[in-house]
Amino acid sequence: MDKPVDFIIELFSSPSFSGEGRDKAAHQGGCTQDCPHCAFSAHRPGVVGARTVSDQVLEALRQTQAAMMESNRSDGARFLGLSLPTGLPPLGVAPLFENTPLLPTFPPETVGFGFGNLSRLSFGDLEYPQLLHRLASHAPFKFNRKPVLRVDYRIPLRELVASESDLNRAIVLGRNLLKGLQSPSSFDGNVFSYSETVNAYPEPKDLLNSDFLHAKREQVRRLMAELFPEEKEASGAVPEFYPSEDAVSTDFTFQATFGVFVYNCRVIPQKPSLHATALTEMNTPVFGISFFPDFVWINHSTYTGRDSTVRFTYKDYFEILKESGARGSFLRELIVKKVLERRQRSAASPM
Predict the structure, then answer these.
(1) Closest to 237 (Cα-Cα) out of 215, 273, 203, 264
(2) pTM reported for the whole predicted model
(3) Are 265 and 249 in contact (CB under 8 A)?
(4) What separation in angstroms does the CA of 152 have from each of 86, 192, 224?
(5) SS3 category, 210
(6) Count of alpha carbons within 13 Å of 111, Cβ hemisphere only?
(7) Residue 234 φ then ψ, to 5°
(8) How far apart are CA 162 and CA 21, in angstroms?
(9) CA proximity to 26, closest of 116, 142, 147, 137
(10) Nearest to 250 by CA among 198, 204, 201
(11) Contact call for residues 276 and 45 (beta carbons, < 8 A)
């Protein structure tokens, strides 16, 4: 390969889901779109009752990290991030697992938690005083170097902006996390990454509306001003949002008094345009491997929701790991090869 592989790993679980339907999962955050593949979805087929992280998932995660570490030594491959889109871990619920299976000497640059839809969470949940400890204890990884904390949330939008109540939720959560980073924790106290993601936006044409884009920027400027009230440069750091029929996004870094604050906002329409194929191709600069309770998904995205070629059983995935010789660069090449072979067979099959 011409360039080192940059990996991001997702570990999907929904320990609070008890088979009581969508509302039970939604109480802990959930999402805004209820895709049937998601661990939060009441419509997801094939799994009944509680879903959590099994020994099989942890072993796949451990072997994948080992392959990534080998590639890091040989060609500089990076472990960009470990993401846990589990929603807000409920109080009183046991951690996802007791002992970490991961290699402490090769930590991810970031550990991210997907909080789901903030509008479904109470202000009391978002203001919980020991929130960072609650996150760290829910997934007790032990690394030799503290990773950056990344928290991703979702809020419903109308004309690209959130309601006053939902914006306040984002402000309250951000303030709480920033305060927590000032005390000793499992995370790097000098950097914080805050991310707003809205997939399957209901009105794609709004992404081309300059008035809506301006209103969105002003709302982000207010968010920054509220998070950093003593720093006048905060709101000025927000760049313009530019119209696009595929997605609207901004990603910027603000040098705050406490350290580095990274903010990302991304709004993606429900139906991709003809120009959005790059989001579903396999030659993306960051290679994602998502471990769901019952299958492995490559380059997980909204746009690949119905693409069965990018999903593998754990039996198939372990075979690919074995064939790769525990080398991350070959692992990526083999996965891409298998996906393309599946697509070729599918294209050749008679209708």
Answers:
(1) 264
(2) 0.88
(3) yes
(4) 11, 11, 16
(5) helix
(6) 20
(7) -60, -55
(8) 26
(9) 116
(10) 198
(11) no
Q: How many CA atoms are closer than 13 Å to the CA of 332, on its beta-carbon side?
A: 24
Q: What angle do CA 32, 309, 63 make, to 5 degrees?
A: 85
Which amino acid type is present at position 210? S
Res 274: pLDDT: 52
Strand pairing category for 148-154 and 78-84? unpaired
Q: Output the tens digit of pLDDT for each of the chain's 351 residues.
A: 457 789 999 988 754 433 333 344 433 445 555 565 665 565 555 544 445 688 899 999 999 999 999 999 988 999 999 998 877 777 777 787 777 778 899 999 999 998 888 888 899 999 999 999 988 888 888 899 999 999 999 888 999 999 999 999 999 999 999 999 999 999 999 999 999 988 778 888 899 999 999 999 999 999 999 999 999 899 999 999 999 888 899 999 999 999 999 999 999 887 665 554 444 566 677 899 999 888 999 988 766 777 888 999 999 999 999 999 988 889 999 999 999 899 888 777 765
- CA atoms of 43 and 301, how far apart (whole Å): 18
CB 86 within 8 A of CB 15: yes
Gap between the Cα atoms of 19 and 37, Å rounded:
15
> How far apart are the C-alpha atoms of 187 and 345, rounded to whole Å?
45
CB 118 within 8 A of CB 166: yes
How many other CB atoms sit within 10 Å of the CB of residue 74? 12
For residues 226 and 263, give the distance between their C-alpha atoms in angstroms, rounded to a whole number. Answer: 14
Q: Which distant-in-sequence residues (6+ apart) come within 8 Å of 160 by Cβ?
A: 206, 207, 209, 212, 213, 215, 216, 248, 267
Q: What is the pLDDT of residue 273?
A: 59
Strands 296-298 and 286-291: antiparallel
Closest CA relative to residue 124, chosen from 148, 83, 91 = 91
- DSSP three-state, residue 328: helix
Which residue type sits at 130? Q
Please give the backbone phi and psi of residue 182, each rounded to the nearest 5 degrees, phi first: -80, -10
